[in-house]
Design brief:
Length: 749
């Protein structure tokens, strides 16, 4: 990491203009390849003195910036505003890796009794902001019993890393929420000289314990950890990469179903604020447009979002930090063993080793998964590879094409595709991520041998001229590309492993299945793997899961993985999979039709004529009214969260005794689910409301629930924590529900 600091002093009265000039150019700096951070700092004691701070992935990125048009434009904007007194200076600072042993830093502060809530709220925000600080491992907030004296006990990889953080200009911004209390802080630096369970004769070795070890801090791993942490499960996330990705080199499309998951996790607004809507698709074959489709379907709760994967990982990491979990970067899994009691994993970290004792291990470590390799999992039918090499690039495109559309340009000879160009809009004016077949010279660089799957760092980066050549052949005449920010060569691999679980170890995401990069299928499927798995592991850790519940992960998710891999491979080489039913195909692409109907862990009783069946996604409806609430509620307001939700329905045709039984049914279901269940009674607009304390009563005022879920008389729906229907019955059948709950929670009651 390289940090550059440029100091300047404004002319009298030009302070505001300096800030305005910075805001104008700042976004352009952030769009440059390798830029990690940019800030304008103002001296608190001298308001005319400013410091421009930029941080870069490496020297090349900084050199390209300094020699490029963005830096020149910034200098030109500052030139008439700065005071020419010789005090300007440009400093380049190399970030030095931490040295020495890990340390603990203890901060002690006593806050006014009436400010405790403010301090604790501010601390939670600071903990979120600390994610990604170099050398920062994690911390705890402790309080002396019966007092307002707090202790922050933080671990850093070294004293040098901690002192570099104290001197970092970013320090004040990140700790801003607790700055009002820092005047009374007392600080001690404690060197860690020994750890419990230190292995005799081995230096730099430590041993830790956790409930779940998650390997990999990509979208699947972060989602797994978020879901576990939301449920109070102790988990650790380790990631071999020392730094988060900085390029849009992977998935961009975020599916509607993933957006619903993010709404449940509380991050959907962050995602929408950081991305752009992908509003449609147009497909061209040999220069002729064969179809154009709008993706803005009114029945979808969210449209298709364009968001680079590095932004997805940033948002998920921040959410995880708010839950008190910080991924440990630069930690490589080197091996593990397991038995009936748990998993013992070995990590290489900070020049030493660490042993982690966990009850479960989840491998989300990507296409080159160590967990998959160590388990001996094989790809069913072998790992498939496309014969061509492909190249990716992040460029600006000048052309007359519809905004917000994913554009596919195919070239066919004798009915067979021999070249393609896919352009996905990115945030920024005329900015696209493009994929196309790489020029032949790249394959020649491999010596005629098969290039490795994934992204090929060994091969030279494609140039702007290579991208323009593809546009000249496939895009509309006159299309021009510019501003190449990043490029790479890759080979498409595809396959799915023979099993998703071995004992107490699971695989998810790219560790389990590999896809052509068609619509972000791999990332979205991996997120849904994690969303399915984590609640089941959480119940197992709490000791309330039925025997065999963990088997449902592979039973439910592997068929979905097979379907997605097969569909993505077929779609990658065609102009369209099914032109007769484009809408259904799009809903399938958006993961809105995912169903676990064949799972033995879902069921029903009685007769239904429509409505979401067992294993299907539970759709949202509106118009629910609850006494004391001045606005209508959505069904997802009730089902959102970490537990199962039981919805008992009754209309005015139901006998009063059948409605009153809801109270007993509610109590019985809660007991059988070990408290992992919320229950609501939904009544039609004219049904009499019984006098009862439990469950809470809501009115289906617009009868949207009745129509969507095909209920009448009495009925019930059990919605799982992952938003799929676990069980339904019509009429409401308490005995059948109890039998189903025994298969999930294992209650013998």
């Amino acid at each position: 990491m390289i940090r550059a600091m440029y100091r300047l002093r404004a002319r009298p009265g030009a302070e505001g203009a300096i800030e305005a000039a910075w805001r104008t150019v700042s976004a352009r700096i952030g769009a440059l390849a390798g830029n990690r951070r940019r800030e304008l700092l103002r001296d608190a004691d001298d308001p005319r003195s400013f410091v421009v701070v930029t941080e870069w992935a490496d020297e090349r990125a900084l050199r390209d910036y300094r020699g490029g048009p963005v830096a020149a434009d910034l200098a030109a904007a500052f030139r008439p505003l700065r005071q020419m007194c010789g005090d300007e200076a440009f400093h380049v600072l190399d970030t030095v890796a931490g040295h020495g042993p890990p340390i603990r830093v203890e901060f002690t502060v006593t806050v006014p009794e009436d400010r405790r809530t403010d301090f604790e709220r501010g601390y939670a925000e600071v903990a979120t902001r600390m994610a990604g600080v170099p050398g920062y491992v994690g911390e705890e907030l402790l309080r002396d019993p019966g007092t307002s004296t707090y202790h922050i006990f933080a671990e850093w990889s070294s004293e040098e890393a901690f002192r570099a953080w104290v001197d970092d200009p970013d320090h004040t911004r990140r700790t801003g929420p607790i700055l009002p209390f820092t005047a009374d802080f007392r600080r001690r630096i404690l060197h860690i000289t020994a750890r419990p369970e230190t292995v005799a004769g081995k230096e730099n070795h430590m041993s830790t314990t956790t409930d779940v070890l998650v390997v990999g801090a990509g979208p699947a791993g972060l989602t797994t950890a978020v879901e576990l942490a939301r449920r109070g499960i102790d988990c650790r996330v380790v990631e071999q990469r020392a730094e988060p990705p900085a390029h849009a080199d992977k998935a961009i499309g975020v599916h509607c179903r993933t957006m619903e998951i993010w709404e449940d996790q509380g991050i959907v607004r962050d995602a929408m604020d950081s991305g752009i809507w992908l509003t449609g698709q147009a497909v061209f074959v040999n220069g002729t447009e064969i179809h154009r489709m709008s993706w803005e379907l009114p029945e979808l709760p969210y449209a298709h979002l364009g968001l680079p994967q590095y932004e997805t990982e940033r948002i998920l990491t921040q959410r995880l930090a708010a839950l008190g979990v910080h991924p440990r970067r630069g930690a490589e899994l080197t091996g593990f063993t397991q038995d009936a009691d748990g998993v013992v994993a070995t990590l290489a970290v900070d020049g030493g080793t660490e042993t982690v004792h966990a009850r479960y291990l989840v491998g989300c470590d990507g296409a080159h998964s160590t967990v998959r390799e160590r388990l001996g999992l094989t790809f069913t039918g072998g790992l498939g590879r496309f014969p061509q090499l492909f190249m990716l690039a992040d460029v600006d495109v000048a052309w007359d094409m519809p905004d917000g559309h994913l554009l596919r340009f195919l070239h066919q000879t004798d009915g067979k595709m021999d070249n393609m160009l896919v352009c996905v809009p990115l945030r920024g004016e005329s900015r696209y991520r493009v994929a196309t077949v790489a020029p032949p010279r790249f394959f020649a660089q491999t010596g005629g041998q098969d290039a490795p799957p994934g992204f090929s760092a060994e091969l030279a980066e494609p140039a702007l001229a290579d991208v323009q050549a593809a546009f000249d052949q496939l895009a509309p005449a006159g299309s021009r590309v510019s501003n190449l920010r990043w490029s790479s060569v890759f080979r498409i691999s595809h396959g799915i492993v023979d099993r998703y679980r071995e004992g107490r170890v699971f695989v998810a995401g790219d560790a389990a299945h590999l896809h052509p990069p068609a619509g972000g299928q791999g990332m979205n499927t991996g997120i849904q793997d994690a969303y399915n798995l984590a609640w089941k592991i959480a119940l197992a850790v709490k000791g309330v899961a039925a025997p065999g519940l963990l088997d449902s992960y592979e039973a439910e998710r592997r068929p979905q993985g097979e379907e997605v891999v097969g569909r993505a491979v077929r779609l990658a080489g065609t102009d369209e999979l099914d032109r007769e039913d484009l809408k259904r195909q799009f809903l399938q692409e958006m993961s809105m039709l995912v169903s676990y109907a064949d799972s033995q862990w879902v069921g029903e009783s009685g007769g239904f004529d429509g409505g979401p069946g067992p294993g299907e996604r539970a759709p949202d409806v509106g118009g629910l009214r609850r006494r004391g609430v001045g606005h209508p509620l959505r069904l997802h307001d009730l089902t959102r969260g970490t537990r199962h939700t039981l919805l008992i329905y009754a209309d005015d045709s139901a006998a009063e005794a059948d409605v009153l039984v809801a109270e007993k049914l509610c109590a019985d279901a809660r007991a059988r689910s070990c408290g992992e269940l919320d229950v609501y009674l939904l009544l039609s607009p004219t049904a009499p409301a019984p006098v009862m304390l439990d469950p809470p009563v809501l009115r289906d005022q617009r009868e949207e629930f009745r129509g969507t879920y095909a209920v009448a008389g009495t009925a019930l729906y059990l919605v799982r924590p992952d938003g799929h229907v676990g069980f339904r019955s019509r009429p409401a059948d308490g005995d059948a529900l109890a039998a189903h709950l025994r298969g999930v929670f294992g209650s013998t009651r």
